[in-house]
């Protein structure tokens, strides 16, 4: 593997450690635990001065990790943020990928999004076909006994909880 | 167009009213999907384990298709080309792509720096709609997609977009030396392919561990390896130690990821309470099963923010951990050669061929392991003749 180092592009290599006696004398480019996944050729030292594609127009709201300076040259346009879940996602992206606040807020936003999706469906007169969407047809075809058992257990549990609540109210 | 539409955990819709994708960038192509697969990692999305999985999204990162339209800057592809599309979206010019880390591109995913852009894998991977649809937008079309070689079966081609390269790279990252004992955790499609590929690197013994007998039987036949059910063991780690002269395996491969079974503690804290990013049982076992100074190769997918694993053992045992998303484009030339010469038979792993219209059933079957399913292939209605 050939080392290609452009000192002008890398501040550290250009200035700092050269004065240290023995700097780099034991460096072995073959000793790279990421090889062969990574064909090391020194491109790392280009830092952010690499050739970039034209910027994709930002026609929708796109979040970017605060661990990078801005959006990437290309991005997905699926499902832009909306409503309460969108606001939660906006908040989550104020925190870095190293924080629980970032990820836990996103997970919570996902759950809120499910409710938003249901409301949106109903608003458009679309009553979800749960039997079909949950893939219960496949359960009925290939796993009937366990499927019926599971439904019965769930049904009975719900019935018992409702009965218990009613009794307490009395 | 017809496309998969995510409505929430365990709920998806075969939606006939999805808008067709458009060219958004000069380097884009629009591809009419001919075959797509459901990946085990799609199940992590389906189960609601991956943050920023938005309602309305289309999943799918393993697909082939015919180029319908190209952007003004695309030079290598033309209308009518039948291509296989690697799951990595890669710019080809950032330092990571230049060093063939196509799964770690820095210009395809604005939303996370920890992972590159992938098709149909939530906003954590760039917010791209995926290939479980009739049409899909393919960014950086000159970099990733490859025209399917003449004479290659379309089912082999679609298996080259993720399963085969990921399984192969799992073995490659293991740094297997001739005669090594390799233990693969997980007999899903990736684990089975990884076990098969270990032989290409000269493994002396390959052991696969799972809890589903039908998959172990399949692995035994397909990958010609030893296969054991951890439900029949008191302790899988102890089993591996005993099977390897009490030293541990030379190489362990985690081909499961965050949906692992086998530990109530991991399942409850990871999959029910979401106190960690899914269940890390396989990774835990792999760390404990590998020998001192051994190599651990991870291709199982874990989400952020963290998982419970014995980091102390990594240090004390001097384990080398090697992990990454597969760099599909880097591996394609070698894998195409293996497939065309008959050394690898990727399509042999496909167990079910299902119309795209029945995608909710396909997900349910794959998730619940119904009808001895190994790998489901989806066929869009317009693509049956291809």
Structure explained in plain terms:
The complex is a heterodimer of chains A (170) and B (386). Chain A has helices spanning 11-15, 83-92, 100-123, 130-133, 136-142, 144-169. Chain A has 170 residues and is mainly alpha-helical. Chain B has 386 residues and is an alpha/beta fold. In chain B, the strands form four sheets. In chain B, strands 3, 4, 5, 8, 9, 16 and 17 form a seven-stranded mixed β-sheet that branches. A six-stranded parallel β-sheet of chain B has the order 12-11-10-13-14-15, with helices on both faces. Chain B has a two-stranded antiparallel ribbon with strand order 1-2. The mean pLDDT of chain B is 96. The chains are: A mainly alpha (170), B alpha/beta (386).
Radius of gyration of chain A, whole Å: 28 Å
Mean pLDDT reading of chain B: 96
Q: Ranges of chain A with pLDDT <50 over ≥5 residues?
A: none
Q: Determine the fraction of residues in helical runs of chain A and give it as a percent range.
A: 40-55%
Query: What is the first-to-last residue Cα distance of chain B?
Result: 18 Å
Which class of the largest domain in chain B in CATH terms? Alpha Beta
SS elements, strand count of chain A: 0
Supply database-style keywords.
heterodimer, A: 170 residues, mainly alpha, B: 386 residues, alpha/beta, Quinone Oxidoreductase, Chain A, domain 1, Rossmann fold, 2 domains, seven-stranded mixed β-sheet, six-stranded parallel β-sheet, 12 helices, globular
